[in-house]
Specification:
Blueprint (H helix, E strand, L loop, with lengths): L1 E2 L3 H18 L6 H5 L4 H20 E2 L8 H24 L17 H17 L2 H27 L1
Antiparallel strand pairs: 1-2
Helix pairs in contact: 1-3, 1-4, 3-6, 4-5, 5-6
Length: 157
């Protein structure tokens, strides 16, 4: 692990936060009700993971920089973030309903939850930071778990 300031991490966080800010200003009908029934343990893990991922993304840098083969981890992570943006574009250009948030993107289930988690996991591998990888895993358990719970609840209706 090498401490420093990661511009790459800041770019990833911007790609994460910008569509979420837009979404927060116009949440779909029913989201507030479904979020009240979220598993509290998963919510706690999600919050811890969000803070930890945000911090580790910015404070760790890859000791090998953009050298091969380490850059492949970064490229795959970036592709995940681009797909995440594609999923948001599809949502914002579509109906913007609650169920639309959980539609798969091709073979990728709950892409608005799973893609950023995978991207930050891969970013942690690129940073060669076990802390960043652990943060992404904690985030994944909470965030993906919550989204799968929402999807299960909506599918049962």
């Amino acid at each position: 692990m090498q401490l420093g300031f990661s511009v790459v991490g800041v770019v990833f966080l911007a790609m994460l936060f910008i569509p979420n800010i837009k979404w927060a200003k116009n949440q779909p009908r029913g989201y507030e009700e479904i979020s009240k029934r979220e598993n509290k343990a998963l919510l706690m893990l999600e919050r811890i993971g969000e803070v930890a991922c945000s911090c580790t993304a910015v404070v760790f840098v890859c000791p090998q920089g953009f050298s091969f083969p380490w850059v492949l981890w970064l490229l795959i992570a970036f592709v995940c973030m681009v797909l995440y943006e594609v999923a948001w574009i599809r949502y914002f250009k579509g109906v913007q309903s609650l169920i639309a948030m959980y539609l798969p993107l091709g073979p990728i289930p709950v892409p608005l939850a799973s893609l950023p988690v995978v991207a930050f996991l891969l970013l942690g591998i690129w940073h060669q930071s076990p802390l960043a990888v652990a943060a992404a895993m904690v985030l994944g358990i909470g965030h993906i778990g919550i989204h799968l719970g929402h999807l299960r609840e909506l599918s049962a209706e």
